[in-house]
Request: fold
Amino acid sequence: MQSEAFSELFPLFSAGNPETLEWLLSIADEHAYPPSRAVLMEDAWGNAVYFIVSGWVKVRRLSGQDAATLAILGQGDFFGEMAILDESPRSTDVIALSQVKLVSVSAQRFIQTLFKDSQLHHRMLQLMVRRLRQTNLRLQMRNRPPAVQLARTLVTLAENYGEKTQKGTQIYNIDFKDLADVTDIGIEETRKIMEKLVAKGWLTIDAPHEAMYLTNLRQLSHLAGHMG
Reply:
């Protein structure tokens, strides 16, 4: 991938030095994973940062035989940075939801890159603060009605990773269990709310093509912003 296309795809590198980015790409590794394949295993020592070139993944935490999805990530995002920065074992694993293409950079090289480029270092801090704010917002939403919480999840996924089409804003057709986990509501509540949203015409699901279309993003955004 050319450095210009890479910086356009990944907001992290939008303010980076072109020379630093070219060097980073020259030492990066490319990966491809099929759906349901584990990309990173829990408790593995952090040895790389992964950048999502295409596809969708879920970050989950295991507890015995149970697994809870913590986040859904799509094209243009990255993961694996926390285990590198605090030099500790990963507390989560990452599973491919769809066909996924990734680019990875080793821990040592990534840290070198941050030290070489102050703008990149600053941008990295900004994105981590943004993630922390999103986590805080998710906690604040826990006392909101389930429909408001789920609308917030859908709108956030659309804003971060959605692709505008004639059918609406397209995201991956995420399993109801995963949607329930990341929204912190029950799976049956999720199922009923999704059925109502489909009935209202606010979203459509194209299961054969693994797509979900937010056909009325304005109304969903209004619902997501309702705090009463």
